[in-house]
Amino acid sequence: MLLASIGVAALVIALCFVCFGGLGIPAAVGIFLGSYVGLGLLAFLFLWAVTSLVDQEVPQEHDSRFYRRIVKAYIPAIWSLLGMKVDIQGAEQLPKEGRFLLVCNHLGILDPVVLLGAFPKAQLAFVSKKENSHMFIIGNLMHKIMCQNIDRENDREALKTILKCIQLLKTDEVSVGVFPEGYTSHDGKVHHFRSGVFKIATKAQVPIVVCGLQNTEKVFHNRKRLKTTKIPLRVAGIIQPDTYQGRTAVDISQEAYEMMLSVLPESFRMEEEESSN
């Protein structure tokens, strides 16, 4: 939508020069291209300006409508610029009301970009390693839409993050997105889950939405070669709160793990599991 709007504005500018300035078609094409690039630069400068105002030292207690709209506006542009063709199946399974915990495999830095763009009405806030808070522009945006930093090397601080996520769900502030492997998968496999994150759902009594994602790690490599990347995103299913009774987080984690693998190619399964099957 953002790039389309920029394109329309650039076209209007070029037509004005043609109609009122008497310019020919070649000159008009040049004006269109120049206007498109100039307006695109202005859009980037606007994003930089509004995110530079964010102070991460100030606690964010509520999801910012303004910055959430910024995310919704810019993500489709990122998809287009990076040649991302996201193929979504199963989105109709998402809860129509109330909050949920979304779990997905983790292939690269673009995974949250795909999920935020795929489920814009969900108001997703991701649990993210604390180092991501220092990323240019992105870190400040994450802060304003209630993403929660987690210190993976400090159990006490990690517990505080888990408790904060439970609070966000109970107060109907946002839905929470987690990558339960804990780290980016560098071999493309779905690694065993850290079961502790599933306590977010059991304590808040919200559904768990299980997703499987492919090919996000290939986007930058393909774009360098001017290729697009098809990104299959599948909603495997929902684990409902009424099934939590009497079950451990480890048990629920294993169910989610198998659900996720059911919508991914067999190559995503860990080798030791392949040999035991």
pLDDT below 50 for ≥5 consecutive residues: which ranges? none
Radius of gyration computed on alpha carbons: 21 Å
Shape: globular
Query: Could you say which structural class the secondary elements and strand pairing correspond to?
Result: alpha/beta
Number of strands: 7
Estimate the helix proportion, in percent: 40-55%
Please provide a written account of the structure:
About 45% of the residues lie in helices and about 15% in strands. It contains 10 helices and 7 strands. Helix 3 packs across helix 4.
Draw up the topology in text.
Elements: H1 2-21, H2 25-52, H3 65-81, E1 84-89, E2 101-104, H4 111-118, E3 124-129, H5 138-144, E4 148-150, H6 155-170, E5 175-178, H7 199-204, E6 208-213, H8 219-224, E7 229-239, H9 249-262, H10 271-276
Parallel strand pairs: 1-7, 2-5, 2-6, 3-4, 3-5
Antiparallel strand pairs: 6-7
Helix pairs in contact: 1-2, 3-4
